Queue: 4 jobs
Job 1
Amino acid sequence: MDCSNTQPASAPAAIIKGNNSALNNPNSISFSPATSGNNRRCLAIANFLNNTVAIYSVDCTNAQSTPQLITVLDATTSMINGPQVVVFAPFDPVTNTSCLAVFNLRDTPGTITIYSIDCTTSLASPPAPIINIPTSIMEGVASNFRSLAFSQLNTITGSACLAVSNATDGANTSVFIYSINCRNPQATSLTPTTVIDAETGQLTGLPVSLAFSPLTANGTSCLAVANSNSLEPNNSTVTIYTIDCSTPSSASPAPFVVLDNAISGINNAVSVAFSTSGCLAVANAGASGTGSDSTVTLYALECGQPSGPLAPSATLNSTSGINVTAFQRGIDFSPNGCLAVSNLNNVTIYKINSDCTTQTNPALPVVTLDGSSITNPANLSYSVDNCLAVINTNGQQPGVVIFRSTQQIPITPTLAVDTSNCPTITFSGTTDPNVSVTIFSANSSPIASTQSDSNGNFSVSSQLANGTYSFTAQASNATNCMSALSSEVTVQINCQPTPTVTPLPINKKFSCLARAILNKYCRN
C-alpha cells in the first residue's frame, strides 16, 4: 500500500452545497463500493432537517466530471423518518446494485430502511424500501451518535451482516446484528440474528461507532465497537467480536479482545475503522472531549484470536495534528491504506503501513485539508478509487466537499498541431508515461488515439478535410482514470490541391507519320 501515490488534492474537486432542495444540514455520508463496468459511485447523504437522503453519482476518475443527483429518498414513498446514519453494503455483482441502509430515529422506536440502488441510473421517482426493519431502539442521550456497519458480502448467498448500535443509557445498551439479503429481500429476517448486550458483551459505555473487518478465510468477520464514556474516559473500551450472522444465536457473544486504557491507550473512544489489510484505527476524544488530549491509536489485530488488551502499533497525537472531538470524530481508510481523520478545524491524512505502523513516530500527515474548503469537518467517507467526501458543517463552503486523488488522474496533456504536411495533420505533446491519449475535435468527436511512451511523449497523425478546427487531448490510464482536457488548439487547414496533368489526345495519323519517320514504315 502506498498512500503517498494517491494523496488528495488540497483544493476540492467538487462541492455539493448545503441549503438547497437536495441538501440541508447533512449529518452522515457513505460512498458505494465498486460498480460493474462504470466509474461512477453513489454518494448517499443523510439530511436530518429536511428528512431526506440525497443520492449523487460521482465519477472520481474524471477530472471534469461533476456530481449528478440520482434521486432523493423521501418520507412518503421511501419512508424516511429522521435519517441519522447511512451506509452502503458491498456491491453485488449478480444484481449490479448496492444495498443502502438508513437508520431513522425521528419517531421512536426507530426503523432501518434498506434500498437497492443502481449508481448508473437516475430515478424518475424516489424508490420504496425493499426491506423495512422495525427496531426497539429508542431515542436517548446518544441519539446523534448512532452507527451502522455492513460486513463484506457473501457472494454465493448475497447476504451481509448489518450491525446497528443501540446507544441508550443503562442496561438497554446493545448492538443488534441482522443478516441482510438484498438479492432476495424476502429471505431477510426482521429480527436480529445476534444481540450483543451490555453485560456479556462488556459494553462499558455507549456503542457510538461500529466497524467490520475484512472477511476471514472461514467466512466470519470481526466487529469492533467503540464504547464511548465521556464521564469516565479511562473506562472507555473498544470491544471486538467474531461475528457469523448466517447462524442465529440466542446468547450474546463475549468479546475475544478488549482494548482498554491502561495497555491499549483507549481514552473515550468515539470512532473505529478497519483497513483492507485488517488494521484497526480508533479515534479517542480524550478526557475533555474537546480535542486537547485526543489521539488516534492503531492496532494489528488477528481476527478471532483471543488475547489480552493489545498495545497500539502506532499512536497519532497532537504532534501529528490530531484534534478529535466528540463531534469531529470521522475516520476512514482508503483502499490503499490512507487514513483520513476529521479534526476540529481540518482533515489530516496519514500513510499507514500494511503492518499497522507509521513511517515516523509520531506520524506526520501526508496532507492537511483546511482553509476555505474545510473549516468544521464532521463525517467523512472514502470511495474505492480514493475519492474523499467530507461533511463541512460551517465556513465559506458548507455542505459536502469532495477531493480527488492528484496522483490517480493522469497529467493534463500538452498539445501541438502540425499542419505543414497537409493533408496529414500531426498531433503531439506530453502527459504521463504509458497512458492512452485521445484527440478530440470541438464537437467532442475523437479524431485519433495513441499511447504515450515511457517519457510521456506522444505523436499521432490523421488526415482531415479543409476547414477550421479546434482540438483538445485527453489522457486515460489502465484504471480508466481520465485527465482534464488539454487547452484548446485552433488551426486552419487549407491544403492546396495537387495539380492534375491531363495528357493531350493522340492523333492517330500524326502518330503514324511520326513512327514512319522513325521506323521508315507505317502500317495501318
Job 2
Amino acid sequence: MDKFIFSILLILLASCSSTTPADCALGTAETIMDQHPDSALSILNRIDPSELVSDKSRALYSLLITQALDKNYIDVNSDSTINTAVSYFEKTSDKRHLMLSLYYQSTIHYNCKDFSESLITLFRCYDLANELDDKFWIAVSARKISDIYHENHCVTEESEFAKIALNNFRLAGNPSFINYALHDVARAYHCNGDYNMAITITDEVLDSAKVHNDTSLKMKALELRGLSYFSLDKYDKAYDCFQSLYTSPCASTSDSAYYGIMSFYTGKTRQAIDIVNQLNSSPQLSTPLRHFLNYLFYTVTDSTHKALEMMKGISSDSDSALRDVCHQNLLGSVMEYHQYKSAVNQANLKASRAQTVTIIVITTLIIAILISVGRKRIMRQKALIDEYISMSYEMKKLIEEHPKPSPSQDEIAELPLTSKAIEQTDAQSDNRSHPSLKLLEAHFKELNLLCKNFNRENTPDARKKVNDCVTRIIDSIAADTQRIKELENYANYRHDNIMVKLRSDFPKLNEDYYLTFLFSCLGFSVPTISLLLKKENQKTTVYNYRKRLKQKFREFNGENKDSYLEAMS
C-alpha cells in the first residue's frame, strides 16, 4: 500500500508543475477513487486543508474526503463537511460534482436515519444524473431511493426504483452492481408479497454469486430465499436455506436467529432451544427477532405468561416501526421535493422569459441596425452612382467643349511636343481626337450606358459593372503618368500654359494639389476629383485642397494670380 501511494505521489509531483501540491493531490485522489479508495483516502489524509487556497479546491476536498470515507465503509454522521461542497457546486455549472455532493450528503442523512432529508437530496441527485445521462449514477441514486422506501415499508415505490436501478446498471455494464441490483428487485417482490417471483430471481442471484465467487451476495440471496419460503409456509426449504447460512463462517447473529426460528417450525425443538440460549446473551440480536424467538421458545415450553409478554413485545415492535414510518413523513418529503422542483421551474421560467425578452430586444436592435446600415449603404451606393453619372457627364462636357478651330503655327511651336498632339486631334486638321479626349469619350459612352442600365435594374451585378468601370477609368487616368501629362498638355492648351506656369510658380506643391488644380481646370467637380484622387470617401480633403490653393493664390503676387483664381472658380 505505502509503495503504491509513494509511486502515485511521485507521478503527482512530476505532472503538477503549474498548480500547488495540495491541488495536485486532490486531482490524483479523485482519479484513483473508484479503483483504489483506500489509497485515495491516504492521499487525502496527507493534505493540509489550510493549503487549499481556492473555494473550488476546498469544496472538492470536502466532497472527496466524504466519498473516500464512505467507500472505505467508515460511516460519517455529520454533514458539516459535505455541506461545503454542496453549497459551492450549487453556485456553479458543475453538475457532476454537485450530483456527487448531493449523493454523499444523502448518505449521511441515511446513516443518521433521517430518511426524509435523505430522500429529498437523493431526488435532486437522481434528476442531475438523468440530466447528465449517466446510467451508473442514475442506478446508484435509484438504488438508494429504493433502500429508503424499503426501510419505511413503501413497497410499491421500493419496487419501482429497484427496477430502475437494475435497468440502468445493466446499461452501465457493471456485473457486480447488476447482481446486487437483481437481489434488490427480488427483495422488493418479497416485500410486495410475490414470494414465488422473489424465489425465482434469487435462483439467478445465487448462480451469479457462484460464478463470481461472491460470498456476501450468496448470503444475502439465501436469507431472502429462506424468508420467502417461510412466508409460503415451506418451512423445510426455509430451514435448508438458513442451515446453509448458520454453518457458514460468515454467519451473522440474525442468521442464527432465523435458523432457530426455522428449527422451531420444523420440529427441531431441542436444537432451537440451544440456539435461543446462545443468542439471548448476544447484544447484537435485534429486539424484534429476540421477541419472536423467545415467543416461540416460551410457547413450546408451555410458559404461557412469558409467551404473552413476548407477544406484547412483538406488538410494541410493530407499533414502534409504524411510528417511525409516520415520523419520517416520506410523503411530505416527496411533496416538499415537488414544491422545490416547482420553485426551481418557476425561477427557470422567469429566467427563460427574461432571456427571451432580452434576445427579442437584442434581435430587434440588430435588425434595426442592419436595416439602418443597409439603408445607409443603399443611399451611399446611390449617391456614389449619382457621382459616377455626374462624372460621366463631366467627361461628356469636357469632350464637347474641345475647340474646333486649329491653333496657329506660332502657338503650336510655342507648346511642348506633347501639346502638338492636341493640334493633331482637331477635327479641321485630320479629324482625329486628342488621345486623352478620345479615351474620355470611350469611357463616357461605357459609363453612361452602365449607369442607365443600373437605373433601370438595380442589381448587385449591375452595381459591380459600374464600380468596375469607374475603377478602370480612375486607373486609366489618375494612375497613369502619361495620361496625366496628356491632360496637363490639354489644360495648357486651353488655359494658356497654366500647368507649366503653376509648376514654375509653385515648385514645392504636393502632387495631390497639382492634380486637384489640374482636374479643376478641366471642369471636374469636387466629387469627381475625389474619385480621380481615389479619395471618394474623403471629399472634405478635396475641399480643403481647393481652399488651401485659393488661399495660396490670393497671397501670391505674381502675374498669374488672376489666372489661377479663375481656373479654381
Job 3
Amino acid sequence: MRTALFILLLLQSSAAQWQPAAEFILGDTASHLEVTGLCYGANGTVFATGQHYGDSIALYLSALTPAGQKLFEHFRVKGFDEKGLIIRPYDADRFIIVGHSEDTTGTFNVRLVMMGADGTVQWETTFGNDGMVTMEIPKDVAVDQEGNIIIGGITFSSDVRSLLLKFSPTGTLLWSRRSAALSPGNTTLHDVEVGTDGAIYGLSANTFVADSSNGTVTRWDAGGTIQWSRNFDLSFTEERAANLLLSGDTLFIAGSPFITGTPSTAVTLAALKTDGELLRYRTFPLHSNQQSVRDFRLLPGGVLALLDETFLPPHHRLHTMLFTTTFTRFYHDSLLSSFVLNGQFSGISSAGFSVVRHGAGLSRVHYALAGTAVTASAPESFDVGNRFIDRIAVAPPHLAAAGRVVGSMFDRVHVSLFTMLPAAAPSDRNGVPASYEVLSAYPNPFNPSVTLRFRSPADGVAELTVYDLLGRTIAHLLSGPVAAGTHSIVWDAADRSAGPYLARLRLNGRTFTTKLLLAR
C-alpha cells in the first residue's frame, strides 16, 4: 500500500467554520515520510517533524507560516529516529527537539537540539549508553521557570527503568537519574510536570507486575533527590498522553484501574497534595473492553476536563467528561466510530472550550460552560477528504492536522490550507438564509437511513455524493440547480454494509464534508 501524508493548516476567526484554500507538497518526490510531531511556535508558525523511512536515523523538519509559506525545510537531519521524538516551543524565538538517536558506532542516546525559529541549530547534546544501558528513549519534556529542560523517559538495561534528565538552558547536563520500579516489574516515566519551586513530579507506568500497584507518582527536588514516591492501582497507555496535572499544591491523575488479567473498563481520577498525601480517589465505570486517556485539562473555575477513548468491539468512542475538583461528574457525551479516535481540548476560556476530534475525519465541537451548565454545539466537520488524521496541533486561532490517505503507504507530505468562512447570519424575513450552513446529518450513527441537510443563501448548483473510506463513490444523491433556502436529502443505506462513510457537498464553489456511520 502507498500512503500520502498531509498537514492541514486551519485559520480560525470568530466564525465557526473552516474552508480549504490551497495545498502544498513538502519534501522531494522520493520522500517516504511519516509525520511524527507537530507544534506551533511564535506568530502561528507550525513546525513538523517526520521520519524518513529510507534511512532509519533520518529526521525531516519543516516550518510554515499560517498562510502556508515555507520558512525552511531540512531533509535528513541525521542523528534521530522516530522513537520518542518530541518537538515543542521553548520560547518565542526557539524550539526544542528531543528524540532517541543512534550514532555511527551503534550507540543509542537521548539527543536534545535547540533550534532557532529560522531552523538554525543553536546547540545540541546527547546522553546515554554509559555502560549501564542498551537504549534510552524520551517520553516527555518540560521546562522550568529558569529555562532548564527536564526530560522523562525509559532506559533499557537488564531491566526497564525510568529515566529523568535535567539540562541547563545552554544544553549542559546538570544531573541524571535512573530508577527501578517500586514493585516488581518494569517502569517508564512518561509524564513530567515542574512546580514553581523547581520541584519535579513524574508519573511512571509499571508493567509485568505481580500485584495491583501499577502507577507511581514521584517527586524530586530541583537537585534530583527523590522526596517521595507513591504507588497506585492505576495503569496508563504506552503512548504519550496528559495523565498528570499540577495546579498549585495539588496533583491530579487520570488513568484506569489496574487488575491483573482484566481489561480496563473504567476511568479513575486521583488527587494528591504536593507532599504526597492522597486527597481523593474515584473510579467511573465505562462500557468498554479498554480505555485510553487522550487529553486531561484543568479549566478556569476549577473544572477538570477529560477526553477518553474506549473500545468495545467493533466500536470506538471518544468521551468528553467534565468533573468538579472533588470528582463529581456533571457532564458526559461520546462520539461513536469504527476507527481509533483521538482528540484535544482547545480555545479554553472562562466561557467554555472546544474539542477537536480526529481519526477517520476531523471535526470540532464547542462547549459553552456556565458553572455546571453545559451547552454543546453541533459538530463542525472539516473537509479532509479521504484521509485518516493522525496528529493535530492547536494554537488558537490556528490548528494543524497531519494525516494519510486511507488505503495507501507513507509518501510525500502534503499541506492543505484552510481559511475562515463568514460567520453564519440569521435568515431574512423571507426565510432565505443569509449565509451557508455546513452539511449536517441526523441521526448519526444511523440505520438504515440518514437525512443530510444544508442551507444556501442564493440560487446555485449543488452536488451531493457519498463515498467509502477508500474514496469509492457509493451514491449520487444530488446533482443540479438548487434554490436559495434549506434542503434535506435522505440516503437509504439498507443495501450497504455497516461502517463509516463520507458525504461531500459541493455548493457554489464551496465544499462541505461530514462523516456518516451506518450501525447495524
Job 4
Amino acid sequence: MHNDLMLFYSFYFFVILLILLTYGQQTIIYVKRGDTIELCDNRTTFIYAYEYRSFDGKKNLILEPTRHERYSNPYRTSLLRITNVIESDSGQYKCPQDDIEWQKLQVYVPVQHVYLTNLHTSSHVHTMVEGESLDVGCAADGSPRPAVDISLDKNGTIPTIMALANGIQTPSIVNDQFKPSVYEAYRIIGLTALDNGRNITCQVDMKHIDKKLILSTTKQLYIEFRPNVAEKSKKIYCGINQTRTVNCTVIRANPPYIRYSINGLSPSVIRRTYGDQHDFLYTFDITPTSIEHFRSFNVTANNSIGFDTCTYELIHGGVPDAITHCTTDTYTSNVTITISCTKSYAQGDNDGYACTLFKYNDKPNKKMFEEIARTKSCIFALENFHEPVEFRVAAFNRYGSLPPNTYGYVIRLNEPILQRETPFVNKRIIIIVGGIFGGTLLLFFLCCLCGACNRDQAKLMNKADYYHRTKYPHSSTESEALKSRNDETISHLVPNGNDKRPHQVSLMYLNKIHINNPVR
C-alpha cells in the first residue's frame, strides 16, 4: 500500500512539472528584430494600458499605445501590436483585465558571423607542433547569446577538449568585422601526428528559438611534427667489393621537406644515390672495399621541427665470390674424370664455404640446373662418360650463393665437333677469289709453256748447226758457193722430181731445210 502511494505521488509531481515546463515554453514568444508582433488576446476591453517588466527586473513601465509610434491597438481591443521590434522590446507583458498571466517576448538577432582562431598564432588557426596543446577561440554575434560548441571529426583518436574560463578577454571587435556576443576559448590536449588533417569545427546555434538557426565554421588542423623513420635498427650483411642498397624510410613528417645526412661511413664506400633526396625515401648504394669499412653508421632525417635516425650495422658476411678457375683431368684415369676448382673469397664464412657442381639440362620438363655434387675441397670425381655434357660450378656459404646460370663457372666435356656452315656471301667471295687465282695460274702456265717451246726450237737449231759444222768443215767462201749451187739444184729437183743423182751435199741441205722449216 505504501509503495503504491509513493508511486502515485511521483507520477503526480511528474505530470505537474511537465505541464509547467510546457506552459512556460509556450508563453515565450520569439520574434526576429525588425518584424511585427501582436500580444494579448483579442478581447473587448476599455483599458488600453499594458504593464512591461524587463527580464532583469530593472525596468518596469506602463505602456500606452497612443503615446508610442511603434505601439498600437488596431482593433480597439486588448490586443497590442508592436512594429519594427528591437532588442529593448524583450521582456514580460501583462495584458489588460489579466492580473495573473504575463506574456514573455524575446526579440532575437540571428547569428551572421562565426570566427575560429588560434589564440597563440596570428597567422593560422590550425597550426601547432606535436606534443603541444592547441588553444582556440570561437566568437560569434547574435542575440540572445547563442550556444557554442567545439568538435573534431572522428578518426579513431579522442583528444581532450576543455573550456578555458580564466584569463580570456573578449575582444571588442573580432577580425574587424563584428562585435561578438559570445566568445569562448578551448584547449585541445593530446593531439598527435595522426590528427594532422582533421577538421575542427566551431558551431553556433539558437536551437531553442528555431532548429534552423545554426551556423558553423570549419578549419583543418595542420600539425607540424618531426620525421619518424622505419629503420630504427637494422643489420646489413655484405662482402668485400659487394654492393648493397640502403633505404632510410620516413613514415611521416610535417613539413615534408626532409634533409638527410650519412654519419659514420666513409665517403669512398657510398657509390650512388637515387631519386629526389628530399622525399620520404632516401636510397643509396654502398660497396665496402676493406675490412675496416664494416662498422655501425646512421642516416639522420631532419626537418624544421626535429629529426629521427635510421641506424645500421654493416657486418662482414655475404655470398662468396664466383669461381673463376677450374681444371679438368680426363687423362690420368680411364675410370674417373676429376674437376678441380680454385676456391673463391668466402666473404666472412670460411667454415660454411663449399662448392656445388650443377649439371645443365636443356630439356623443358626438367630443372635447368641440377645439383649433382657438393664438396668443401672443391674437387669433384666423376665416372668417365662419353656423351656431351655441360657443368656449372658455384660456391656457397650460410649467406647464400650466386646464381649458377649467371656466375657459375662453365665446364663443357665431350663437345661434338661441328662444321661451321659458310654463309652464302662468303661462298660467293671465295668463288670469285678462287676464279681469279685459278685464271692467274692458268695464264702463268700457258706463258711458261710457250717459253719452253721457243727454247726447245732454239736448242734444235743450234744442235743442227753444230752437227753440220763438225761433220762438214768448209770455209766460209766455199760454203756460200755451195749453198748457192745447191739451191739451184734443189730448184730443179723439186718441180720434176726426175733427177735421181745421189749427191750427199744436196741431201744434207735438204735435211737442213726440213729442220729449219718444221711443219706447223
